[in-house]
Amino acid sequence: MKDQINIRRRRLLGTTVAGISLLELGLSGLAQAQSNPTAVSVQSGARVASFDNIRQIDAGTLSIGYAEAGPQNGPVVILLHGWPYDIYSFAEVTPMLASAGYRVIVPYLRGYGSTRFLSADTPRNGQQAVVAVDIIALMDALKIDQAIFGGFDWGARTVDIIAALWPQRCKAMVSVSGYLIGSQQANKAPLPPKAELAWWYQFYFATERGEAGYAANRHDFNKLIWRLASPKWNFDDATYERSAESFNNPDHVAVVIHNYRWRLGLAKGEPQYDALEAHLASAPAISVPAITMEGDANGAPHPEPAAYAKKFTGKYQHRNIDGGIGHNLPQEAPKAFADAIVDVARL
């Protein structure tokens, strides 16, 4: 597989911490690697000034862009972002884990950042199974047999799916908002009015007007979602703009629109994923060690922890995170998220 370094540099605007590159953090982690990194407490305060070197590797139907930090021989952690976010949701989590001896992989999902489709003929599909297949393909391309996974939003759903369908690839997992595996059949059931209101953007995306509106206004649209989903997070413009670059991906709109239309049965998936979706529609239990998390100010639609606790049949904890923490928990409470990654492998 081709593995090339994209030397395009991203600059962090307005950060209070400067001069710490991902490369420096990776070398620091290599020098400090322990034989048992899970026994090392992550340290707050270390921050990524920029993911300076975004790597590219062909994996499945994609050329996947990803950041990497920490020692090559460390236990692997794969961190997965959601919509409308990107790898910078893990900008502070990454160096915490790298300095504790973990090899941290943070990929752009399909439709984000530097990730690209290898063929113009591949459908710009956003159904839940295909995103998980992408990550398994990435692991294969990087020759990673097993990893600890962490994610939120689309990333949490993908973590759940990998743990349910490929438990041998998932050593342990951390999922914000718990069990998010769904199905088209389940999504046919109407919700109470207040719950339906929370999904307003899904119904907007179901229309041609919504697709055109998102294409024209994705920058402001996604900034609005950030504010609604995390009403107490006082992020600045520089923080948002850093991630907003990822939404300029040429396939972003198509993948996002397909994802939400597929959920409602308004768009078809690809037939090669039908068997996976059939399994997921049975709401399979997750047996690997798991920690689920929820912020006390999550303004996005999310299930209550009691509703999904029994889906985790192995070693399991749930953690509520206080302090005005919203939907983008890894970026809003990075120390709590990094601690969960370290702790989950020791359950």
UniProtKB/TrEMBL annotation:
Pfam families: Abhydrolase_1. It comes from the Bacteria. PROSITE patterns: TAT. Residues 75-205 form the AB hydrolase-1 domain. Residues 1-33 form the signal peptide. It comes from Paraburkholderia phenazinium. This is Pimeloyl-ACP methyl ester carboxylesterase. GO terms for molecular function: hydrolase activity. Keywords: Hydrolase, Signal. The keyword GTP-binding does not apply. InterPro entries: AB_hydrolase_1, AB_hydrolase_fold, Epox_hydrolase-like, TAT_signal.
